[in-house]
What does this fold into?
Amino acid sequence: MIRFTFTYLRPVALFLAIVFLFQCCKVYQKESTTIEQAIGPDKKKVQIITTDDRKLFFDSIYFKNEKLYGLMSKNKNLLEKTEVEIIIESIKEIHVLDKVKSRNRTIVLAVVSGGILLIIGTCIYIGISTMRDADDAADRFEDWLKNNPII
It folds into this structure.
């Protein structure tokens, strides 16, 4: 009985891990913006696509001494920032983070994954309880056969 439960919990754990990975994703606007719009006063997160099709992600970009710089998280550590000079001629597109779509996608993924987990949990519970009922019925049938031999 316990083996049955753990057998089906491994895929559920894998599914949860994948869902959490998707929740960490950010959604950027499809339309490219100008450098001036991306800089703005509210320090927007941006994705810069270079002329050689590399994607660079910055927490914010700004002008300093008439050069364009970007703050980039260092090795996925959110507290350590690295200042990187951006060559303006190498910029092909600039996409700003779309906070509304990012938030909506996170909410939808959380609700959908919660619903799927509820369905999976219910199916596992029904399967286990059905197996218990089947085991009880088999035991009762065996007892009946012992007490009431057919031949």
